[in-house]
Amino acid sequence: MRVLLLASLILTTGLAHATGLLAVIIDDIGNNAEVASAVLALPPGVTLSILPRLSASHQAAEAASRLGHEVMLHQPMESLNHRALGPGGLTLDHTRIDLEMVLAANLRSVPHAVGVNNHMGSLLTSEHTSMHWLMEALLRHGGLFFVDSRTNPRSVAQSTAYSMGIASARRDVFLDNIRNPDRIRECLYRAARLARLKGSAIAIGHPYPETLEVLRHELPRLREQGIELQPVSRVITYQRNSKTWHASSSPLPQVAKSSKP
């Protein structure tokens, strides 16, 4: 069944040799223009998730859109260990109105954002009320999609988005919890195996030199093996197909959470 569905996607998108769709998100862009430029040198299929209200946030978003990269807002959210959030963070202290105002200002600082994922957020993403307010705000901003970074296995972010009809997905693999090229490569190929198994997968990494070097070398090789690098929105569209949604949303074996809970 998965093969038939992927074949249908191939016919409609021109992915003539795909055996799996892979989205790669690079988080934590925005505080350094030189680092952002290094990420922008990656293939356009790589998605940039940009922190709000930092010195290079607006510039990086504009450049990413111009070069064909999909742009997301990397929304800071309160963590269980209450780590410093930086500008534009959301906490349990925010009311519904506060949350809407903070999100709106953050989106103004990251133009062209078509979706959102959480930066940290191990506390906030486990709170039903806050997630409901967030998803309402995403609807009011044109129906932005949401990717749950899954920094907490008890997160209710994706299930809340799904219940409200918001396009959403969850992270499958973190690439660089350990900043070692061999481990990063291993994680990337784990994501590729999941993409073959499920039809699609989402991997999240950071703009570390080790991560960018692995991606530069390995993404072309994965393409030769039939793994098609795609923007996150395309992967979510695939997963939302009525015949694949249930399978792609079912719980997976627990995987290591980020070092940024």
Describe this structure in words.
The model is unreliable at about 1-15 and about 240-255 (pLDDT under 50). The chain has one domain: TIM Barrel (Alpha-Beta Barrel), CATH 3.20.20.370. It is globular and about 50 Å long. The protein contains 10 helices and 9 strands. It is about 45% helix and about 20% strand. Strands 1, 2, 3, 4, 5, 6, 7, 8 and 9 form a 9-stranded parallel sheet that branches. The longest helix has 18 residues, at about 180-200. By secondary structure, it is an alpha/beta fold.
> What's the main sheet like?
9 strands, parallel
Mind telling me the CATH superfamily name?
Glycoside hydrolase/deacetylase
Number of domains: 1
Principal-axes geometry comes out as globular
Which parts are unreliable, with pLDDT below 50 for 5 consecutive residues or more?
A: 1-17, 242-256
- Cα radius of gyration in angstroms: 17 Å
The strand count comes to 9
CATH-defined fold name? TIM Barrel
Mean pLDDT: 90
**Fraction of helical residues:** 40-55%
| Strand coverage percent | 15-25%
